Every structure is written in C-alpha cells, then in structure tokens.
Amino acid sequence: MLRTIDLSVGYRDGGKERRLLTGLNVHLAEGQLVALLGRNGVGKSTLLRALTGSDKPLSGRVEFRGVDVSTLTALERARLVGLVSTDRIQAGGLTVRELVGMGRQPYTGFLGRLGDEDKNRVAEGMDAVGITSKADSYLSSLSDGERQKAMIARVLVQRTPLIVLDEPTAFLDVASRIEIMGLLRRLAHEGGRSVLLSSHDVSQSLQLADRLWIITDDGQLLDGTPRELVNCGAMDRVFGSRLVRFNPTLLDYESAD
What we know:
This protein is α/β, with parallel strands linked by helices. The chain has 10 helices and 13 strands. The protein is globular and about 55 Å long. The N and C termini lie far apart (44 Å).
C-alpha cells in the first residue's frame, strides 16, 4: 500500500536543514493497523506529513501503490489518503453534519452538493464514531473529544484506502479511546484499509496494533510487531528511565522502585 525509499524528513530553518529521520525504508501493508510511537519532538508529525504529501521530504520518496506521492494532484491524494491532523480547524459555525459532509468533497466536486449516497455515508460515519446525537450541533459547542470524533468521522466518509491520524485519541476519555482504537482496527482488518496513527497511548497500541513504528531519541525507526519489540527491549530503550520501566506482562509502564 505505502512504502518509503531512503526517506529523510525534517525542516529547513534559515536555509539550514534539520534532519529528524534519515534513510527510512519501511512499508505499510493493506489491512494493517500501525501505531507510530516516540517521545515528543522526535518527528512523528513531521513524518506523517511527509507520508501523506502534505510536506515535501528533505530527500528520498514516498510511494503509494507504486506511484510517487509527490506526483499526485491534490484531488488524487484526497481520494487515496485520508488525514486527521492535530491542527485545530476554525469552523465553529459548521454543524457536525456539515463538517463530516466535507469529507465527500473528493467525489461531489467544487459545489459540494451531497446526493443520497453521500448523505448515507455521512450518517454511517457519524454513527461509527458515536456522534450521531450531535449531528445538528455547532462545532463551537462541542467538547474537545466530541470535536475529535467529528474529525475522524469526516475522514471515514472519504472512503480512502489509507487513513493517517496524528494523535486521534489525544482529547478522549478512556472509554472513547478504546472505542476509537477498536474502530480503527476493524477498519483495517474488516475493511481492508491501511491505518497509520501516531499515539502516546503505549498500552493501547501494544494491544491493538498489528505493527509498531517506534522513533528513538537518536532518530532511528524501529519496525516490528508489538511482541517483537517488547521481547528485544525496545520499549524500555525508548520510553524507560531511572524511575520508570516497562512491564512486559502488563504491557504498560510502572515505577522502577
């Protein structure tokens, strides 16, 4: 579905390059849920933007089904890749139904008129994330968690084979986190989509993701199944400290005391 070839990402500041990740050669298969983990500032969001074509990589390339993502038009990308970013949208005057309906724009054209099929997709998307009761509420009246669910519903109705989400459960309570992660897993396994998400919820990622991409503090990307990365000590290497250690039985962190 997606692969990188000698990909390097980062940013340019005053004409100077700051490379966060270099020489990445990873792939994402159809029907897989992959969780991207790492400490703050290691480049998770930067990598996701490069993978979706939102930002240009410093070098290397990203291929989607064998096609260089940089050669795709915006409309072509919108039909192939759905993105939920951490950017807070300024759309408080829209209702939830209207926001979710915007996910159908790649199919409705510039005017965005929704046909019966589009309206059905919108209803299905809202139901899938449990926000149907807020369909006619304005975004400005929603909690952060409700707004995040609306954003996820919008990307669901794009019906793209690849869904990329940057911290999709960051503002959700525990029950909603489990619900959304379960939904994303079903989309991958039952819907045949590829789902890539960044997260700080290590425990949920270990339990529900098919593979983990873990970015280390020194700019490496570790790729493997949750069990493989637990067994090789990657979890303690990346997230452990003098005071905190990873418990492989609990699949979570605990005090080192």
